[in-house]
């Protein structure tokens, strides 16, 4: 981290903010419903502190410390100082959207940080704004248990059909116009299948499944469906389907090769080596035998001067 | 018929040097003390790691490996002199065979030790035998060097059996232990026709076997480099290039040894001007072959100037290694060829001086082959200290490099103090039956 | 190998590592194992209670005499880790994709690698190079580490099987086997191998650790060290150290058999083949036939400019 005098810092913050307001702000194109999102828990000193830890790990290398004006100037556009006006003028939902999706050189943190963690980062950012008044989300977390998801595979059309309903006391309700995402589980993360779709009036959403996605050796793929409803919250459902290409590739060290272990050396090489060594050893044997013979055959009669 | 008197003179002439004298003790003392200093340097390396040498991650093979290649190269002369010249019946070479064989044995066995000095974990030497992979050229190298040492030892020993008997008979003043050893080693030699036949057959078999083994030892050594895809090493002619270079170095080493034996051991009548003349001609012959391979090695990539070959060649021809490169090529190869074409330059002293140039040139040529290539890998050398980019040997490293040279000289000195360096039995035999030997 | 075989093996590993945890003296977990907190039970005065850290990072309290039963010797632990390290993870073929258009030479990959593997400042299994193909083409930053070739020249030349290729594609170096001949350094066209020329950085701190071939820690004087694709992390289902440390989304890592790679920064998972196809993926020095498992995406439309101060160094390599 480099230190500069305060004047320069302030100038940078102001300039940075102005530039950002003029240029960058319009480009985020944040949907209205996203903009209106709010945290379900109140921001306090402890959430800000947790947020700071997450911020230090993920954000500080580009944005610098809020209020310090030490963001990374070599980048284009210059990442704004998050204590600055441009960020603080945004709604919580805006900031949540920006962290989640990322844009240009800003990476997306959707798969890196949980919803909770992202809100905590916002809590930390807001701690630099004395005028900030939090608006809490009306959402009730207990309701997510009521959601019932069913998933089936249509082999003819190669489609995955997901039906999202909720078991309310009043009866079964279809969740309409909800964001639904389908993922295939991979070793290090979730691979999104098709694109994010919305449920129709019956709570139904259809994903077309690729024909070339590798599964395990039987073609099984672990599928995860994730529903995001404004009042029920986020619900996930997991099920294994035989929808993938059966994949059972041999290990990379199976064949004989120069680089493989001794037991898997090329046959010609082993034979050549052994042949040469055997040849030499037999000659040595012959010589040793000769030396013994020599030792034994000192015939006195043929002794020369 | 053999003149008994002449025979006695020859025997006593050729046995004269087998005794302790002041000069030998002083010489061995100097060698021994210098060697101990070098060994001390090696203990520092053992304690602190290979980092005490100048080699680093990019140039990771330096003086030690150059030295190893040099030692293997010099040892090849044993094969040329005893096997090739012997089998095709070149008569003048037979008195020099033992000198060549002593050099071969000393250099080949020391080469094995040089490799140990380059190991990061010499304590794990046995792993090569326990966990050896037949695919690794190092395993081939160790196999073939071991075989070569054994054959060289046998080729030194077999013709010595009759001489050991002579030593036992004639050296009555020698210490008792020494004489006992002569007796044991002479294996009841009685010069019976059957014994002669056994020795001749054995030598002949070994002389044939040593030819592929010797080619193998140096070809495999060249493959340590040629089997990698590095500009400057990635060459299909590295095998013959190394082998031909080895004969040059070996010839020079034999000539230098001949000169010192001739004057120190008073063997003017046995190592004659004729021998120097012939050896000089042989040196010219092998040098020409080597020059031809040099031409191939540099001309072919130099014509195409592929990216990394070009960087490598520029570095050799005009860059940081230019002085060393041209010195080795001109002083160590081209000039010696030209000089030795003149008859008056093929007298013992000038031949010996030229040979010193050739031998030193041969050493630095190994350095030129080993080091510059590593200074220019395919990807840039960045984010490391400056001493990683350019190789500079350290004092400790130089001392550890000198150690094997001293050790080889010590072995040669000791061997030539306990065995006749001109084969007595053969010399007498040739006097007796010149026509028979000639028709071989 | 089938998956059936895979499952019980994993179980064994868990059991083994649990037992390992009880060792508590630091065979594997080393410094982090806690051997403190000996409490006196009033009713059974003779029995010591000890707190130990399990492999799952849980602090548990057990009778010391029970701990004694499951203590594995250092040699047993080593043998287990060596065996596991050579077998790799069944059914996988690890690949890495490096997006050159995103690298800004932040060097977080280097520092995380150095701290994970206890390396000296001049040693880093991964290094970011300032590259330029010719004087007329633009310079760019290129993270470079072991390419984990499918036809590895370094493994071919190793005389003692110290460096080896695993069934899952990772090329590892066994520090307990290496004789320090450095033939592999000579053979590697990517200059991806490093040597411990003198005593390792943390020799003293690491002296009680059992050697883990998948982490190559403790480092040993006189042996090779190199990129391991963070085999220890991968075994735990985590992305390699460098991949996770990058702030700019340069690295993707995953399993070729699953056709999926995960970005270390965004944790986004994408199709491996499609990523290469859409961005013109290539491999370093393909003409050498080494078949690397590391793929590069060309520095097209760079997110970050190449800095002027680095230009000279990038050009240096072009001069002979």
Q: Any overview of this molecule?
A:
Chain A is of the alpha+beta class and 305 residues long. Chain A is built from 8 helices and 8 strands. Chain A folds into 3 domains: 6-126, Cytochrome c-like domain (Cytochrome Bc1 Complex, Chain D, domain 2), CATH 1.10.760.10; 141-241, Immunoglobulin-like (Sandwich); 255-292, no CATH class. Chain A starts with 5 loop residues before the first helix and ends in a 9-residue tail after the last helix. Chain B has one domain: Formate dehydrogenase/DMSO reductase fold. The model of chain B is unreliable at 435-440 (pLDDT under 50). Chain B contains 19 helices and no strands. Chain C contains 10 helices and 14 strands. In chain C, a hairpin with a 5-residue loop joins strand 2 (48-53) and strand 3. Chain C starts with a helix and ends with a helix. Mean pLDDT of chain C is 84; it is low at 1-11 and 21-47. At the B-C interface, helix 6, helix 7 and helix 13 of B face strand 5, helix 5, helix 6, strand 9 and helix 10 of C.
Computed structural class of chain C: alpha+beta
The biggest sheet of chain A, with number of strands, parallel, antiparallel or mixed sense and barrel status, is: 4 strands, antiparallel
Helix content of chain A: 25-40%
- Low confidence ranges of chain A: 16-26
Largest interface: B-C, 54 and 49 residues
Assigned CATH architecture of the largest domain in chain A: Orthogonal Bundle
Spatially, the strands of the biggest sheet of chain C line up as: 13-12-11-4-14
The CATH class name of the largest domain in chain A reads: Mainly Alpha
CATH class of the largest domain in chain C: Alpha Beta
Going by CATH, what is the homologous superfamily of the largest domain in chain A?
Cytochrome c-like domain
Q: How many distinct helices of chain C?
A: 10
The protein's oligomeric status is heterotrimer
Rounded to an integer in angstroms, the radius of gyration calculated over CA atoms of chain C is 22 Å
Features:
heterotrimer; A: 305 residues; alpha+beta; Cytochrome Bc1 Complex, Chain D, domain 2; Immunoglobulin-like; 3 domains; four-stranded antiparallel β-sheet; 8 strands; 20% strand; elongated; C: 320 residues; Alpha-Beta Plaits; 2 domains; three-stranded antiparallel β-sheet; 10 helices; 27% helix
């Amino acid at each position: 981290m480099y230190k500069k005098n305060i004047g320069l810092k302030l100038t940078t913050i102001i300039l940075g903010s102005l530039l950002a307001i003029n240029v960058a702000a319009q480009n985020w194109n944040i949907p209205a419903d996203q903009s209106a999102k709010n945290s379900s828990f109140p921001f306090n000193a402890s959430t800000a502190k947790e947020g700071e830890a997450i911020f230090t790990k993920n954000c500080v290398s580009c944005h610098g410390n809020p209020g310090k004006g030490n963001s990374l100037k070599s980048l284009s556009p210059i990442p704004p100082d998050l204590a600055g006006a441009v960020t603080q003028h945004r709604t919580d939902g805006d900031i949540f959207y920006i962290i989640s999706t990322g844009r240009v050189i800003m990476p997306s943190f959707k798969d890196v940080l949980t919803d909770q963690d992202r809100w905590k980062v916002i809590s930390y950012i807001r701690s630099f704004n004395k005028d900030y008044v939090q608006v809490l989300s009306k959402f009730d977390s207990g309701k997510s248990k009521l959601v019932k998801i069913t998933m089936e595979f249509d082999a003819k059309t190669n489609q995955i059909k997901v039906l999202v309903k909720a078991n309310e006391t009043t009866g079964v309700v279809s969740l309409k116009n909800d964001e639904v995402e389908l993922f295939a589980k991979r070793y290090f993360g979730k691979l999104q299948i098709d694109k994010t779709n919305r449920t129709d009036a019956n709570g139904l959403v259809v994903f077309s499944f690729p024909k070339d996605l590798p599964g395990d050796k039987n073609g099984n793929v672990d599928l995860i469906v994730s529903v995001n409803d404004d009042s029920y919250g986020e619900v996930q459902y997991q099920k294994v389907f035989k929808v993938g290409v059966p994949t059972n590739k041999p290990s990379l060290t199976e064949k004989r090769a120069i680089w493989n272990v001794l037991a898997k050396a090329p046959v010609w090489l082993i034979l050549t080596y052994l042949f040469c060594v055997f040849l030499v050893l037999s000659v040595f044997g012959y010589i040793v035998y000769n030396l013994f013979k020599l030792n034994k055959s000192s015939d006195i009669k043929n002794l020369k001067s | 018929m053999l003149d008994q008197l002449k025979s006695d003179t020859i025997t006593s002439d050729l046995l004269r040097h087998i005794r302790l004298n002041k000069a030998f003790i002083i010489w061995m003392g100097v060698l021994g003390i210098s060697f101990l200093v070098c060994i001390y340097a090696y203990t520092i390396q053992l304690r602190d790691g290979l980092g005490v040498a100048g080699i680093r991650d990019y140039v990771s093979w330096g003086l030690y490996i150059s030295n190893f290649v040099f030692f293997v190269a010099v040892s090849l002369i044993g094969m040329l002199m005893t096997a090739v010249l012997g089998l095709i019946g070149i008569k003048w070479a037979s008195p020099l065979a033992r000198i060549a064989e002593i050099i071969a044995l000393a250099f080949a066995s020391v080469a094995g030790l040089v490799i140990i000095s380059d190991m990061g974990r010499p304590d794990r030497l046995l792993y090569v035998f326990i966990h050896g992979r037949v695919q690794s050229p190092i395993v081939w190298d160790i196999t073939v060097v071991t075989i070569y040492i054994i054959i060289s030892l046998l080729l030194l020993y077999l013709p010595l059996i009759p001489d050991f008997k002579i030593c036992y008979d004639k050296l009555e003043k020698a210490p008792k232990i020494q004489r006992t050893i002569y007796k044991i080693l002479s294996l009841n030699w009685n010069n019976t026709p059957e014994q002669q036949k056994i020795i001749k057959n054995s030598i002949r078999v070994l002389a044939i076997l040593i030819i592929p083994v010797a080619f193998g030892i140096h070809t495999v050594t060249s493959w340590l480099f040629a089997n990698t895809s590095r500009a400057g090493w990635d060459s299909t002619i590295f095998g013959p290039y190394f082998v031909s270079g080895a004969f040059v170095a070996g010839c020079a080493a034999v000539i230098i040894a001949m000169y010192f034996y001739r004057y120190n051991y008073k063997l003017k009548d046995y190592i004659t001007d004729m021998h120097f003349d012939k050896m000089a001609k042989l040196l010219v012959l092998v040098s020409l072959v080597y020059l031809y391979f040099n031409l191939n090695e540099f001309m072919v990539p130099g014509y195409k100037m592929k990216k990394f070959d070009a960087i490598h060649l520029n570095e050799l021809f005009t860059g940081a290694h230019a002085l060393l490169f041209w010195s080795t090529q001109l002083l160590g190869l081209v000039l010696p060829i030209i000089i030795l074409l003149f008859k008056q330059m093929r007298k013992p002293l000038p031949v010996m001086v030229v040979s010193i140039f050739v031998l030193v040139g041969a050493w630095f040529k190994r350095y030129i082959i080993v080091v510059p290539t590593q200074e220019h890998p395919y990807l840039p050398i960045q984010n490391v200290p400056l001493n990683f980019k350019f190789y500079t040997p350290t004092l400790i490293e130089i001392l550890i490099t000198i150690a094997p040279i001293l050790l080889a000289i010590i072995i040669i000195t000791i061997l030539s103090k306990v065995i006749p360096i001109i084969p007595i039995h053969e010399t007498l035999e040739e006097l007796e039956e010149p026509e028979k030997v000639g028709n071989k | 190998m089938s998956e059936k075989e895979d499952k019980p093996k994993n179980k064994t590993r868990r059991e083994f590592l649990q037992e390992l945890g009880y060792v508590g003296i630091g065979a594997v977990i080393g410094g982090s194992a806690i051997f403190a907190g000996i409490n006196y039970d009033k009713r059974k005065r003779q029995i010591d209670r000890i707190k130990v850290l399990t492999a799952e990072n849980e602090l548990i309290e057990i009778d010391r005499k029970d701990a004694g039963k499951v203590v594995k010797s250092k040699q047993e632990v080593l043998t287990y880790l060596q065996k596991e390290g050579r077998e790799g993870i069944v059914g996988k073929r690890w690949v890495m994709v490096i997006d050159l258009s995103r690298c800004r030479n932040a060097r977080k990959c280097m520092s995380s690698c150095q701290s994970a593997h206890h390396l000296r400042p001049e040693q880093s299994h991964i290094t970011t190079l300032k590259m330029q193909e010719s004087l007329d083409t633009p310079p760019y930053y290129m993270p470079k580490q072991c390419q984990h070739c499918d036809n590895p020249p370094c493994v071919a030349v190793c005389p003692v099987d110290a460096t080896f290729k695993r069934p899952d594609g990772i090329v590892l170096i066994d520090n307990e086997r290496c004789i320090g001949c450095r033939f592999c350094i000579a053979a590697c066209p990517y200059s991806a191998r490093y040597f411990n020329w003198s005593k390792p950085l943390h020799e003293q701190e690491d002296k009680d650790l059992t050697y883990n071939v998948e982490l190559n820690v403790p480092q040993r004087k006189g042996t090779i060290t190199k990129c391991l694709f963070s085999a220890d992390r991968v075994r735990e289902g985590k992305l390699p150290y460098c991949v996770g440390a990058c702030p700019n989304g340069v690295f993707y890592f995953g399993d070729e058999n699953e056709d999926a790679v995960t970005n270390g920064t965004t944790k986004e998972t994408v199709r491996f083949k499609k990523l290469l196809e859409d961005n013109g993926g290539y491999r370093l020095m393909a003409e050498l036939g080494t078949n690397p498992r590391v793929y590069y995406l060309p520095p097209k439309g760079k997110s970050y400019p190449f800095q002027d101060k680095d230009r000279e160094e990038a050009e240096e390599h072009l001069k002979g």
